[in-house]
Amino acid sequence: MLVALFPGQGSLRPGMGQPWHDHPSAAVLDAVAAAAGVDVRYLVEEAPLEELIRTDNAQLATFALSAMVADALDIDADLAIGHSLGEYSALYYAGILDLAAATALVVERGRAMAAASEEAPGTMVAVLGASDEVLAAALAAHPDVVIANENAPGQTVLAGSVAAIDSLKADAKALGLRRVMALEVGGAFHSPLMAPALPALRAALEATSFSPGRIPVVANVDATAHIGTDPWVELLSAQLTGAVRFASSVAQLDAEELLFIEMGPGGVLGGLIKRIRPDATVRTVGDPSDL
Questions:
Q1: Which of the chain's ends, N or C, has fewer CB atoms near its CB within 10 Å?
Q2: Catalytic annotation, pick one of 11, 23, 66, 84
Q3: Predicted TM-score (pTM) of this structure
């Protein structure tokens, strides 16, 4: 089984688009820019880190880079999986969303999440090496902190208000959490603190046409493959405040031979795949030399 992977917004670094500047598939960047009304070339080629990682910019830049890489590869996968924002890239790749519709949703999602982060400030941490039992006990002791990303065995991302996360970090040693790493993010994504973003995103989703598509996409919230006629408005709405079940999405794939190709910046998902399915083959395409 050939699986197309699409990263979320935490995979960016400045200048990631520069190697693609003269590549024919860079025309996709211009198409996304025209649909978004944003200078995407500037974002992916020249923008400094603090500007690039701003929530709205990061989501648009990540989507544009993934769409460009998919165009350059021009291969037909059997299934697509995206991580958080990457789910929109996966839906575009699968033909469930066209480029203009996907771009419009990414723009609205980024703006809405940035506004929600200002209204209800929060943050996220990665917990490494904790057992399920230890993690469950820690969350029971800090009920205002929730699981945001189930990334891989021994790697879980938690989200909550700044105060709630600070409290968790202060108690980490007593709770048996050996490694708790702060993440440079603009808010408590995939947590109830993103609820203020839901009305704007849902309105945009309800105004969007979803096509049958050519391959299924595994939804983050239920780790289940869905075709284009399934309830994507509900699935994407739930994803805003619900956990990204990436590890479960990959673990449930029933195939003896798995080849994953990560399309877009960073190579983060490839590393997670190796922990979830050590038997799988992983390839990452981030710049033209990877093609």
A1: C
A2: 84
A3: 0.96
